[in-house]
Amino acid sequence: MIIVDRIREMQVLMHQCRREGKTIGFVPTMGYLHEGHAALIDRAREENDMVVVSIFVNPLQFGPNEDFARYPRDFARDRHIAEQRGVDVLFHPEAGEMYPGPLTVQAVVKARTDVLCGRSRPGHFDGVATVLIKLFHIVMPDRAYFGMKDAQQVAVVDGLIRDFNFPIELVPVPTVREDDGLAKSSRNVYLSPQERKEAPALYQALQAAAAAVEDGERSADAIRHLVKEHIEAHTHAEIDYVEVCSYPDLTPLETLHGTVLVAVAVRFASARLIDNVILRLPKAPRQEE
Ligand code: AMP
Hints:
This protein is α/β, with parallel strands linked by helices. It has two domains: 2-173, HUPs (Rossmann fold), CATH 3.40.50.620; 186-278, Pantoate-beta-alanine ligase, C-terminal domain (Pantoate--beta-alanine Ligase, Chain: A,domain 2). The chain is 38% helix and 19% strand. Residues 29-30, 36-37, 39-40, 146-147, 149-150, 173, 175-176, 183-186 line the site of adenosine monophosphate.
């Protein structure tokens, strides 16, 4: 595995791979790798000649009161995991390499951000889009792999790739969970033992919502209510949002139809957690003129 921390070196290496006709699969991460990241890497390994993983805790996507400084970092461990998974190139730039000075141009995400995490974390997706534009230009991948745990991020990246004509195939990968249903996340290390016990309630609540929809429930209000009640009954967490919207457009729904995202975010004392499920329902009948 080659480890690169300079942009120029990365660009030379990637140009060389492309000249040799190799396909490149790219997995952008913030490190502290776990089985969720590994699923993305494995999928990239299956589908490409070269697998590139980036590890970069992007300051631009953290708000002033968020966890940038204490975000978990362990490069030695990440390097070992990446090597074991068969990663070819690990790109690990310093913040000063990615942002040597103030930006003259920055991405502003215009849609799919007035709901969910976009609403609770103003500027977050602008930071995500800005770093991805840089990383896509540096790595020039054929395919980029993103986890559905961050469903809104997948929707935003889908828009970014289309709007800016990146010749990149977006590959969404299903959420990897602990045995008790908790979505794997680098932030799970923040949880106290009691919070860790309560945290699977998020997925249980989403599953209860899926079961209700399976039984014929079509009211978004009823689904939101059911999810909130379950989380309130089983955790001490403060609910940030429970939302029901179309996917990938992320338009809030009153009546469920088509591809639906039910998403939740909660704040425990030590960590903010998110989770979601996608439900596939028949499309709404077209309104008569
Ligand atoms: P992060 O390092 O948290 O920025 O995540 C890097 C990538 O891994 C993103 O595309 C995430 O959506 C994805 N990811 C994180 N956790 C999981 C998970 N539990 N299952 C699948 N993908 C995940």
